[in-house]
Design a protein that fits this description.
The structure holds two protein chains of two kinds. Chain A is mostly helical. Chain A is built from six helices and no strands. Classes of the chains: A mainly alpha, B mainly alpha.
Chain lengths: 218, 93
Amino acid sequence: MPKWFTPAAVLCGLMFVISPLLIARAPDESSMGMVYKIYYYHMPSAWMFLLAPLVCGVSSAMFLVRGRPGDDRRAWAAAELTVLFGALTLITGPLWARRAWGTWWVWDARLTSSLVGWMIGWAYLILRRYGGPGSDKLAAGVALFGAVNVPFIFISVNYWRTIHPPTTVVPRLPVEMGLPLWFCVFAFLLLFMLLMTMRLRLEETRARLDDLYVALDE
Amino acid sequence: MAALRAACVAAVVIGGAAASTALAAQPPQPQDEFRPVGNSPAPEQIPAAPLLIGAYVVVLGGLFAYVVGLSRRLGAVRQDVERLESEIKRRGR
């Protein structure tokens, strides 16, 4: 692991210990009450859920153009994080919606496009797992669709009629609500970098293992 | 003519009913901004605490499970690498 990994992991752990204290001190929201505080973990998860397919898509495009295995490994790692953070987003969202909207789920543009993005992440992983030879390039093609879906997810709440709060709520947050939120965003971003590093290392070690098997056969 | 008039009336009635049903089915308006609760307590029709606690348990538990799983996978592959490296060295001798 790189030298920065251990200090960053300690810092990330501390941030996740401190974050519930900051969230507990933040005020409730006027119409949603206490359940609004799901937002402090839901939104950073959702942002990582948008970041991961972008990393996956860009890395896949680079892999298709240059054919370097490192790009492919990065794409694979990011696809797994797409599924992870997508799951967290798609579980915490309905828990919030149940109290705030009175329903677990609505088929609006934001929720539906998020579900599609999550399924594209699964499609990538399933292709890699069961696709056989050549699945790396097929999966890279799928990843491009996942990346193209990201701007659609982001702007969907601003352009289509939807119950989901628009993106403008974030810059309008008062300081006592915004501070814990940005703290959580940085904690999740740091965690994302750490998980990407670990997952990349796994792929590099697997590649080394494959090389060793070849060397052993010769 | 009477049939045409009846059809028009039926169309208006059915259209009106469909429109009112569609309007009734519309979700509530989204919030443009979040505001602190201030002095007025928020309505609590559905208990918020189980949902809130559930959400945090899901996130922290999910992340923890993923980190543990990833560490185990990494450890297993590293062990295989070490085993093969020692095997290759042994054969080289």
